[in-house]
Amino acid sequence: MSRPDYWKTRLDEIAQILATVKKGKVSVIAKSPGGRDVHLVEYGEKQDFKRTANYSSAIGAKHPRFYADKTGKKPVVYIIGAQHGSEMEGIAAIMNLIQMIETGKDFKGDTNPFLADCINNCRLLLIPCANVDGRARFPYDTLNDVLHEDFRHYAQGRWKHNNELCMYPMCKEVHPIKDAVSVLGSYFNDAGYNLVHDNFFGTMQPETQAMFDIADREAPCFTLHLHGGGNVKNEIAHAGHLPLYVKEIIQELKLRAKAQADELGLQTLLNEITHREDTFPSETFNIMSAMHFMCGTNSVLYESNQGLDFSNYRPLETEWEGKFTHEEILLHHYVLFEQTIRLAQDLLS
């Protein structure tokens, strides 16, 4: 499918762009089951939080400062793209953010003075593509105008027993899924694991373990988990099993992002704080939840519009709320990044 020049989502493009990074540090943090590199980009100096305990023990001692004393420190913001290899909107946004930090302008030639200078106000940690195996198997570089059925075929795959599409959320019924499918979707790494639902209390996949090691080492104020949610309005979505105070912080982020999006004429969905953990079955426990309880981060699930073509499929109401352009998708990520950094600064001031 056609894509604008500023929409950089391929693994080779990521490698080429990261090779030009001068203001930050680039490292390989994991090898995927398929033998591919997972990269981290760090901007700003690593800070000494004077740690004397892990997060659980620090909370047991009634104060997180024993895990990370952030007094007088810059906030740490951690942004993770493409935990599902077919959800490339976050990759494009992160690559343009890197270009803006490095050169003052994104690949479109536009600038955002706050984001271009953000590394002077925070420590920024970026994983452009967490699920490199899935991204390598996904044949598109953009989802704009991709037919819904084709997207599902390559994203979630097809069941081996009947060759039907592994639709969402039924694609989570088998985990790891590799032996149950005839087509392994890009939701999963080459071993068939959905990183969002890895075994967080046991042996994790190398990509997931690396993401958690960084979170533990850095104690980020915010972690943004960037996803694609069909043709939904862009939204900071509900994440289950988070303490109420974290939900209230995330609600404040939603309000700030909504206000800026409204000023720019961007459509966004504002959903309220929900309490659903006491239902059966309980609200999903996933990487967002687990990462909070490992390091105390305000863990944010962002679902981006993907610009899909639904002409051959009657979508659920929650899957169709408009078809956004590449520019609209990118701009809303910039709103999310800016408001997250600003709120992180306010929380530590």
Account of the protein in words:
This protein is 32% helix and 15% strand. It is an alpha/beta fold and 349 residues long. The protein has one domain: Aminopeptidase (3-Layer(aba) Sandwich), CATH 3.40.630. The strands form 2 sheets. Strands 1-2-4-3-7-10-8-9 form an 8-stranded mixed sheet, with helices on both faces. α3 packs across α10 and α8 packs across α10.
Keywords:
single chain, 349 residues, alpha/beta, Aminopeptidase, 10 strands
Q: Work out the helix count.
A: 10
Order of helices and strands: HEEHEHHEHHEEHEEHEHEH
- Number of folding domains? 1
Radius of gyration: 19 Å
CATH topology: Aminopeptidase
Shape: globular
What is the C-level CATH assignment? Alpha Beta
Average residue pLDDT: 94
CATH superfamily: Zn peptidases
Outline the low-pLDDT stretches.
none
Quaternary state of this entry equals: single chain
Strands ordered across the widest β-sheet: 1-2-4-3-7-10-8-9
Largest sheet: 8 strands, mixed
Strand-residue fraction? 5-15%
**Range of helix content:** 25-40%
The helix-and-strand class reads alpha/beta
Judging by the overall fold, what is the CATH architecture?
3-Layer(aba) Sandwich
The total strand number stands at 10
C-alpha termini separation: 46 Å
Describe the structure concisely for a colleague:
With about 350 residues, this protein is α/β, with parallel strands linked by helices. The protein has helices at about 10-20, 55-60, 90-105, 115, 130-135, 150-155, 205-220, 245-265, 285-295, 325-349; strands spanning about 25-30, 35-45, 75-80, 125, 155-160, 180-185, 220-230, 235, 270, 300-305. The strands form two sheets. An eight-stranded mixed beta sheet has the order 1-2-4-3-7-10-8-9, sandwiched between helices. The protein has a two-stranded antiparallel sheet with strand order 5-6.
